[in-house]
Structures are given as structure tokens and as C-alpha cells.
Amino acid sequence: MGEDNPFGVDAIQLDHNFGEGLIGRMTNDPAKARAGFSAARIAQEKRIQAQPDYGPAYCILGLIDAGWGRKEEALREGRRAIELLPVAKDAINGPHMIEYFAITAAWVGEKDLAFEQLDAAIHMPAEVSYGRLKLLPYYDPLRGDPRFEKIVNSLAPK
Questions:
Q1: Is residue 138 part of a domain?
Q2: Residue 1 has what pLDDT?
Q3: Which residues on neighbouring strands pair with residue 14, listed in sequence order?
Q4: What is the mean pLDDT of the chain?
Q5: Domain enclosing residue 59, as ranges
Q6: Per-residue model confidence (pLDDT) at position 25
Q7: Beta bridge partner(s), residue 9
Q8: pLDDT (tens digit, 9 = 90+) per residue, 111-143?
Q9: 3 pLDDT above the threshold of 80
Q10: Distance CA 110, CA 133 (A)
């Protein structure tokens, strides 16, 4: 991506501004979250203009819009990502589109949709693991829900 030290998995590479927004979200600092996600959105829109049919770009934009509180846009972008990069087309990144759509749905308060997507993602060859679910802050809105605990426990090491 060219940014300094992007983070994420495979085709889902998140930049520094997204990280700032995520930290703002995690620390309940709406101004910091909005500033980070706003800057991340500007950069992501440029990526989409350059690659209008690239599913991961829409996936990331959906996360950004979810973090920014733009529910309808976030859900539309997440669905577009899955449409552009289905599992049948890419067995590695296709499942990530579903996993991150689950996160997007959770962030905008659509927990039923989030659990539906997360349940699908854990049954695919993806990196949805016990450790990711247990530790990553992306899943914070789902913590404490018995459905989340059931999914996490199903992936726990035996």
C-alpha cells in the first residue's frame, strides 16, 4: 500500500490513520476516532478510484464508514466487497471479506448480521481463530453476547 507499516491480514491492509481511528474508538475518544477515520477515508476513496472493482478496497471503506458511524454506507460497502471478491473467486481473501463484514456489522449495531457472517467465516479456511476473536479489539461490540462466547469457545484449543 505504500503507507508506513500497514497492519491487517493478506489483502486487508489498514493504514496509520485507520489505526488512529481504531484507538479513538477503543478509548472512547470520538474526536480522535472521527479524525483518524476521516483521514483514512480520504485515502481509501483514492484507492477505490484507482481500483473500482477491488473487493478489499470496499471492505476497508466499509470498516472506515462503520467506525465513522455511517451505517448504511458501511453495510453497502461491505456487501459490495463480498460481491466483488467471493470465496469461490479467492479462497484466501474471500473469507476475509466475510469476516470483516461481520466486524463492520458489529460496529454499526447489526449484531444478528454480524453473528451470521462470523459463523460463516469460522467455517471457511480463513484466519478467524480463537486468538483473533479473543484478543482483537474489532470484536469488542460482540463481547459478552452468548453467541460470541459460543463461537469463541468452539475455536478454543482443546
A1: yes
A2: 39
A3: 7
A4: 93
A5: 7-152
A6: 94
A7: 12
A8: 999 999 999 999 887 678 899 999 999 999 999
A9: no
A10: 18
C-alpha R_g of the chain: 15
For cell 508506513, name the residue: 4
C-alpha cell at 104: 463492520
Euclidean distance between the first and the last CA atom of the chain, given in angstroms as a whole number: 38
- DSSP helix/strand/coil, 77: helix
2: pLDDT strictly greater than 50: no
Give the pLDDT confidence score for residue 6 in this predicted structure.
78
- E strand or H helix at 75, and its extent? helix 71-84
Q: Per the domain annotation, does 16 fall within a domain? A: yes
In a domain, 158, yes or no: no
The total domain count for the chain is 1
Number of residues that make up the chain: 158
136-148 pLDDT, tens digit per residue, is: 999 999 999 999 9
1 inside domain: no
CA-to-CA distance for 6 and 100, rounded, in angstroms? 16
Cβ contact 12:101 at 8 Å:
no
**Burial of residue 61 (number of CB atoms within 10 Å: 0-12, 13-18, 19+):** buried
Torsion, Cα of 132, 63, 46, 77 (10° steps): 120
